[in-house]
Amino acid sequence: MPILYTNAFIGMFGFPRFTVAMLYAFLILRIWHIRGYLSNRGHNRAYAAEEFSKLSLVVFVGLGMLSSVKIMGFWRIPP
User: Fold this and answer.
1) What's the predicted TM-score (pTM) here?
2) Which long-range contacts (CB under 8 A, 24 or more apart) does 62-65 make?
3) From the CA atom positions of the chain, what is the Rg in Å?
4) Closest Cα to residue 8, out of 17, 21, 19, 62?
5) Using an 8 Å Cβ cutoff, are 46 and 36 in contact?
6) How far is CA 29 from the centre of its chain?
7) Of 61, 71, 66, nearest to 26 (Cα)?
8) Which of 37, 48, 53, 73 has its CA 20 to 30 Å from the CA of residue 26?
9) CB 71 within 8 A of CB 13
C-alpha cells in the first residue's frame, strides 16, 4: 500500500485523470479479489485478480516515474 499511495500522490501532479482512472481500476480489482476469496473456489478464483493488482502496481510505479520527470521539466508535453 505505501507503494500505491506514494506513486498515486506523485502521479496526481503530472497525470491526474490517468491516476484517478488507475485508482478506480485498483479498487475494482481489490473488490474482485475479496469476492473471489469469499466464493466456493477461494484462492483459485482470487488468483487472477491478484495478478492484475500486481500489474497495476507496476503501472503506478511507472506513472510515478513519468510524473516526476514531467514535474522536473525534463519532458514537456504540448498542450
Assistant:
1) 0.81
2) 63/7, 63/8, 63/10, 63/11, 63/14, 63/15, 63/18, 63/19, 63/22, 64/6, 64/7, 64/8, 64/10, 64/11
3) 15
4) 19
5) yes
6) 10
7) 61
8) 73
9) yes
**Distance from C-alpha of 51 to C-alpha of 36, rounded to nearest angstrom:** 13
pLDDT band at 10 (very low <50, low <70, confident <90, very high): very high
In this prediction, residue 37 has a pLDDT band, given cuts at 50, 70 and 90, of confident
The cell for 37 is 476469496
Q: Which residue from 54, 49, 66 is spatially nearest to 13, judged by alpha carbons?
A: 66
Given a cut of 90, whether residue 24 has pLDDT beyond it is: yes
